[in-house]
Amino acid sequence: MQDSSSLYAWVWGSGIVVCLAVWLYGLNIQNRWRLRSLPGPRWKWLVGQLKEAGTGRLHEHLLQWAQQYGPIFKFHFGRVPVVVVTNPELAYQVCVKRFMNFHDRPPPIMQLYSGRHRSLQMSSMLFARGKLWAGLRAAGEPLFHTKPLHRYAPLMNSAAEGLVHVLEKSSTPEQAPKAVNINQTLSNMTMEVLGTAALGVHLDAQSTEGEHGQGADLVWSGRQLFTVSNVKPILKLLLMAIPLLSGFWRQVIAWFKDPGMLDAAVARGYLWGASQALLDNARRKRPGFAGIKPTSTANGVAAAAADGGPGLAEPVHAAATANAVIAELANARKHPSGIGANAQIWGLMQGAFAKGEANYQGMVPQDTSILYHLMNATNKETGERLTDQQICSTCTLFILAGYETTSTALAYALYEISRNLDVEARILQEVDAFGRNKAPDYEDLARFPYLWAAFHESMRLWTVATPIIAMTRMCTQACTLAGHYIPKGTRVMVNTWGMQRDPKLYPDPEEFRPERFLEGSKEAQSRHPYAYMPFGAGPHKCIGYKFAEEEAMLTLVRLYQHFTFTVAPETGDLRASLLAAVTVYPKHGIFLRPHARV
């Protein structure tokens, strides 16, 4: 009887201790105490502000919090505290003046991957740190100097001409123009540009609106990575609220075959395989190349364990169309191999890698491509050539960073210009003065000051890149910011969406007014230089921003040489439909009707 009572007491005591430990864990006392001087939304037990952040509307909550708490405040992404600045001077401090205090980008808050998968993620310029980041950045910068930008213009004009042909099918004289999901149509075009510029092969992504052309498989893969937030909300909440059990939650995600995570694994593997195949083909073109040797095909993908990334798979002679490839990739995650989460996800990546390698094994990249340049580049910090993993990760980053952001920015610009006929009229005047029957080159873009202003105003009003990744820095050295102590390891986010809609910086911020950005205008002269940061600022500023601007401007000129646009009812309330993931994008798309100019 005494033993039974002792056991009963022990069980009750253990239960109380466990409950107390869980309760204390959920209070997150240590992280909250370190930033206690900062204002911000009230802490919610265990989850912080995950409810607000997990709905896809974080950009709007950041705007509201900035209005409520001022230019610097904090919120909690689960257990992770984030300091937010919504002030151009503080943004300048974080991104430029005190760069050494905020040198690196932090890893993603939602740790979906571990081991080899995480190694791939952290070897790209986006998440690399310290000397590795500095070396990758220095190796990539020559790609976006003035001379290469001149060289890209014919590629961009060719893709824009293809876009015109696609839109002409929806704008026939015999019938009323059809509504076009301009986001999707533009993403096919920007993928075509990136395929040629980054990978050095022509991707016919616009053939039948990208459904059958070479490159549609890459478009599909890119979209999966941009919609990785499809991971079930409850699983995202658990992963971020209780990171202590992140390994277990990843197992759960794999067990339940969560489509968001598994599709992303397939897409990442496929993009990696295509890049690796093109890299090896470039080396075969130069048999005397003395750099890093390609991974032996004899070991196949199993060689991945040696350096943290997939090796070359045995060639698979699959001549399937892009549609068939997409169908295979989309179905692959329904039957993941392996038992544990890592085994399942790695198995998916292996299979997708093999398909990507096989489908691009016959293509040799041009020697003007980004991939070819990186193959010959040296990490100036170490004096060594870039590894296969670094080259392929960087090429994949260029594709992802270049195609979705530029196409979304273009869609927003067309939307706003279409809603403001006075703006459209001035743009048409510039285009007609240049000529409607000739393609502009890089130097010609200076002849479109009002179109430039309209594009910048659109980028201000509809900030494409969310601050979650692009505008977040890790405090690498403890410091004070606006009088508040910022401990080492704290995430600091620049709230560009809130800053670029601040009425103190932009009078009547909800109005689309290109005159704000005309050189010499009173508003442009009085504005703080860091009040407008669509591409970031400082050493971490988007390395390809000039490329993106050139592509967008050339495309807009070519479009307005042939069309005007009206907003179709299918677009609905654009702002209410926006979701924030990697980009701030319209959930249902932007639908425009193209009207052929006579």
From TrEMBL:
Q: Name one GO molecular function term.
A: iron ion binding
Indicate yes or no for the key word Transmembrane: yes
What the entry lists under InterPro entries is as follows: Cyt_P450, Cyt_P450_CS, Cyt_P450_E_grp-I, Cyt_P450_sf
For binding heme, which residues are annotated in this chain's numbering?
542
Keywords assigned? Heme, Iron, Membrane, Metal-binding, Monooxygenase, Oxidoreductase, Transmembrane, Transmembrane helix
Annotated transmembrane regions: 6-27
Q: Which cofactor does it need?
A: heme
PROSITE patterns given in the database record: CYTOCHROME_P450
Q: Do the record's keywords include Secreted?
A: no
Family stated for the protein in its record:
Belongs to the cytochrome P450 family.
* Protein name per its UniProtKB record: Cytochrome P450
Its ancestry begins with: Eukaryota, Viridiplantae, Chlorophyta, core chlorophytes, Trebouxiophyceae
